[in-house]
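Customer ticket, subject: "Can you confirm the structure for Amidase?"

Message body: Hello, I'm evaluating your service for our small team and ran a test protein. I'd like someone to confirm that this is what the system normally returns, since I don't have a reference to compare against.
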Amino acid sequence: MTLDRAPGLSETARALAAGEVTSRALVELTLARIEATQGSLNAFRIVRAEAALAEAEAADRELATGVRKPLLGVPVAVKDDMDVAGEPTAFGCCGEFPPVTEDGEAVRRLRAAGAVIVGKTNTCEFGQWPFTEGPAFGATRNPWSTDHTPGGSSGGSAAAVAAGLVPAALGSDGAGSVRIPAAWTHLVGIKPQRGRVSTWPRGESFQGITVNGTLARTVADAALLLDAASGNHAQDPHRPPAVDASAAVGRDPGRLRIALSLKPPFTAVPARLRPEVRTRVVELAERLAALGHTVEEADPPYGQIGLTFVPRATAGIAERVGEAPFPALLDRRTRDAARLGRLLGGAPLRAARRAEAVLHRRIGGFFTSYDVVLAPTTAAPPPRIGALLELSGFATDRAMIAACPYAWPWNVLGWPGVNVPAGFTADGLPVGAQLLGPADSEPLLVQVAAQLEAELRWFEKWPSPPVTAPSAAV
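Agent reply: Thanks for trying us out. I re-ran your input and got the following:
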């Protein structure tokens, strides 16, 4: 088993259970890959070298006695907005943060499945932007082109998986923060139904728009990690019925009615779909039609959905800023967003929360005519490192909307979406498309994604030249 790059999550779990490799050996190789690429990719905020090796040895003892768990001994990473006991949770911010005492619920469930948490990945400050840069940690770079961002805010997790440092990772998605970096690094990214993967110790994150999700190279691996992380804390306010995402992989979805939605949803400033992205998304639509699905252009009735997003997003920022131990160190754009959030945190926020039920009924009605929506994940390929870092707040918002106008409505709705790789621009930059469905539709979206994957085999493509540690065999 040659491990220049991490093999897939499912393959790693199988090899461990079969005794073909030890968890200790896998974690040692993972740590070597991380160390070899930290200077070039900068995917990790925290590397848990000593703790991860100890956890790997404990997993090996369990494996030796015949214990079997879905991810027993498998190294994975989590985004640095998730609590890992004994580690700080800086969430992209500057300053020295104290270690937390307990795992967040999603991390607890990964551990219960046997996973070894090798580290916490970089994210922009409070996950606000579709790039992963900042004074706290520098710039996280895209393995496909280190001059470009991997996206954000789960950019560290995406870079780590795309480069083969780890087989899969958790991220979070508040306005596309799993799907956007998945699109820009040629990965599968699952944004699940709100509450599917707990955000505890917060019952709701950013007023319910942010959920935890998964990034992997294949649909099966993204689904396996989703199943392992899924479940609720006793005090979670959102508790959707359980689904088995892994069981959906490879299951025939039947002939579906698919809406190809190319028009950007409501935006306050102009957004235009770049021709090179449009071409790749339309090619996916044509592939779906060739598979027997009925595909036609149609746009969900979004209306003024953007007016419900801003109060929830900015009120969420205000909550985080109010808890920040070093507010003076925060980005000026963060402080400005928090001020707006405090202004909108009363009646506008309550109105925005009430509007969700209306949006569910109106946009839910669209799914009486269609089963799935296919849309671009972003309007543009990944921007260059630094392109958005020093902009003003208004200029940042304009640039974000221009590049990423498609993902955030599903955060308002709380419904599932899956990014799938759509190919590359002429310059070799990855772009993606998202499959979107109504509440609890993860199994259907996984079926369609897996059907496309079987045809396109996107997991066979790796960044070139590979940004990895020296070859090692186990």
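A couple of notes from the result: The chain has a mean pLDDT of 96. The first helix runs from residue 9 to 17. Feel free to reply with more questions.
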